[in-house]
Amino acid sequence: xxxxxIDYIRQLHTVYLxxxxxxxxxxxxxxxxxxxxxxxxxxxxxxxxxxxxxxxxLYCDRDDAQIDDDAFYLADIIxxxxxxxxxxxxxGRVVDVQNYGSxxxxxxxxxxxxxxIPAIPDVIKEINTEYQVIYIKPMKGLFDED
Length: 146
What we know:
Radius of gyration: 18 Å
Helix content: 10-25%
Mean pLDDT: 90
Largest sheet: 6 strands, mixed
Number of helices: 3
Strand content: 35-45%
Low-confidence stretches: none
Shape: elongated
């Protein structure tokens, strides 16, 4: 589960070990620990059992939590078309979202070529997940041919 913080996790009562939602875990506690979350589940009574789940991706039902109006789930960003806010030129589609600490990085693919763009206010001008489009103001040289 990728989320912005412990408050999001605390909204959840159930998380899943699989994307299909067939392996549920009941969340009984969550606290921050540096840049990670320490969570407790009713089904996991011992540290040894918990260690087996360390580093696993957890899934949740998006209807079980609320996000801010200006926030988005990564699943809603992936697949969006990336379009120039001034010229309507299409640059490709978001195929992945990465984060190395300072901001999200959108991996834009067009005809087999990948371009990484920072998801910062200077670049990202509008995200419309309903129409699957992200309007950007590209930094100089970002999409220029070699």
